[in-house]
Amino acid sequence: MEHPTHTDEIIDMIPAMAWSTTSDGMLDFANQHFLEYVGLSLADIAGENFYRLFHSDDLKHLANEWRNIMTSKTAKEVEGRIKRADGVFRWCSLRQKPRHDLQGNVVRWYGVVLDIEDRKQAEDALRETEAALAASEQNLRLIIDSLPVLVWSARPDGSADFVNKSWLDYAGLPAERILEWGFLNLYHPDDVPEMVDIWKRDLEISDHTQLKGRIRGEDGKYRWFYFSGRKLTDARGEERWFGVNIDIEDLQLAENALREGEAALRESERRLNLVLNTIPAMAWSCTPDGRLDYFNRNLTDYVGLPFEELVGFGFYKMFHEDDTERMRETWDEIIVTKQPRPVDARIRSFNGEYRWFNLQQNPLLDADGNVVRWYGVVVDIEDRKRAEESLHRSQSDLAHVTRLTTIGELAVSIAHEINQPLMAIVTNAATCLRWLQDGHTDLRHAQSAAERVVHDGHRAGEIVASIRAMAQRSPVRMERTDVNKVLHDVLFLLRKELHSRGLQVATETSPDALFVLGDRTQLQQVLLNLIMNSAEAMHSDEAATVTVSCKRSQDRNIEISVSDTGRGIAPDQLDHVFEAFYTTKVDGIGMGLSICRSIVEAHGGQIRATNNHAKGASFIFTLSSFEETAVD
User: Fold this and answer.
1) Is residue 632's pLDDT more than 50?
2) How many CB atoms lie within 10 A of CB 271?
């Protein structure tokens, strides 16, 4: 192997790894640049030792390629990894060319090794980028195809050049039936003109579009869609339109239903307002804190005051001055307790006349029990009030007549009661005179007889006063009254009558005074009627007993009961005995128990009738104790 020294120097200076082999492929030369790159001497890599330079994974491939090149005598670029002097394998390109003799036989092979590691890395990076781009495009396509909306793109002239899978699935058509201008065939004929006009307008003067229309689906039914698109510049610098069609069928139906509902609500409000302004009552509403915020025309027409003066708490100026404070206290209590309560008051009309009205209210509550609004009506009860007053006067007259009738029936007993103290007075007066005669004078005995005359005179006076109070017609006097004392007076008056009937009287009273707010005479009449009813319900025998009880109940009310051992009340009559003109007596008029109920209820109490477990009946009524009575 002979090379000119000058030629070797030149080859060593070129910035490439040059080499040569014999015709059979044995390495016999490597320039200095090649040797420095691999960090070995020519002796280390001469002959077939050059294979040690290659990566083990590339060795078989490179050996096969080198044999094929030598067999075919044709140059070919081969790539493989060569171990650099620092121990790092780098991709290199091995290029060779044969020198032939005159007969065409290969005399020698000459070649170069080029480091292509950087190019390889760039190519790998490019391939990775392209793969990532392809994957990204595939993912983007998957995303676009999986979106639950119809995605599309269009050219600047408005013709479609892309639709996603959702579009195809909805229409049930291949893409070529929808692209270009095929999509117009799927739009509702009634919507196409307006939609095309809007689309053309936005293509010319805008960079976005919005419209609504109906699209026919695979099932042949049209559904409403919302169209939204925007003009953008794509990666190639071309302007295109990108957009979506969103199914708003349910929303459209909801909007239609909402419009219909709003129209129905307006009509309902109109009718309600018409009803409120035509009903024969004054309707109103208040905020949760009790401020008036609405009232109908009947109320404004009656009071003759403008809305501005009545809203809020200005409505109090409608009431009579004697009722205003009571109305204020009652309304405040209703607002706090959230419990409605009808209340009567006088309201001034536009002409200055006051009439009685009944104010009723009811709260509208939310799920938590809070008041959302108060609603109410004001009803004219002037005629009812007058009828009630007339009824009260009639009841009072009837009660007075009943008392006189009862007193008349007790005339014999009353005469006997009065006769006893009168006879005692006569007797004691005669005794007093005898002890004052000459020769028999005894001042001590005379004084004692005179004192008995005074005592019996007072006793007779009390009986007469009691009878006179019951007999006369006097105004109702609601005052602090001891029920025990009322009962004692009635039993004292009836003592002789009950004894003459052969009846026993048992009393169960509290040792303490039991005070109520009531009219003494009316309460006496209730007890008188109930005791006489019990007496008339029994026959004279050893077991005939009237039991009168007066005690404080567990709820702190006063409970008075009158029981007998008579025949009782038929079960089907218990609910009727307090009705006017209903009687179980042969000669009764049916007003005694009705009057009793009226008096008890006027005192704020309740009365009822029951049958005893053994025999007989009981009449029980309750009154509020004076300590717990709110005096108005």
Assistant:
1) no
2) 10
> Which residues, 6 or more positions from 190, have their beta carbon under 8 angstroms from its beta carbon?
214
* Two structure tokens written together for 329: 């206290």
Q: Give the Cα separation of 581 and 589 in Å (integer).
A: 6
- How far does CA 294 lie from the centroid of its chain? 24
Structure tokens at 504: 């026993």
**DSSP calls for 99-143:** EE-TTS-EEEEEEEEEE-HHHHHHHHHHHHHHHHHHHHHHHHHHH
Strand, coil or helix: 9: helix
Q: Dihedral of CA 297/300/301/302: which sign?
A: positive
Query: Which H or E run includes 485?
Result: helix 483-500
The CA distances from residue 603 to 50, 316, 477, 523, 541, in Å, are 131, 29, 11, 9, 36
pLDDT, tens digit (0-9, with 9 covering 90-100), for 65-88: 999 999 998 888 999 999 999 999
Structure tokens at 432: 């007093």
Specify the residue for token string 């009656």.
302
Residue 399: predicted pLDDT = 55
| Three-state DSSP string of 145-198 | HHCCCEEEEECCCCCEEEECHHHHHHHCCCHHHCCECHHHHHECCCCHHHHHHH
DSSP state of 50: G
Q: State residue 13's pLDDT score.
A: 74
Instruction: Report percent pLDDT > 70 for the chain.
Output: 82
Mean pLDDT of the chain: 81
- Residues 6 or more apart whose CB falls under 8 angstroms from that of 139 comprise none
**536 has pLDDT over 90:** no
Question: How many angstroms separate the CA atoms of 25 and 22, rounded?
Answer: 5
Contacting residues for 75 by C-beta, under 8 A, at least 6 apart: 69, 95, 96, 97, 98
Strand partners, 215: 187, 223
DSSP string, 274-295: HHHHHSSSEEEEE-TTS-EEEE
- Residue 337: pLDDT over 80: yes
Phi, psi angle pair for 381, to nearest 5°: -125, 20
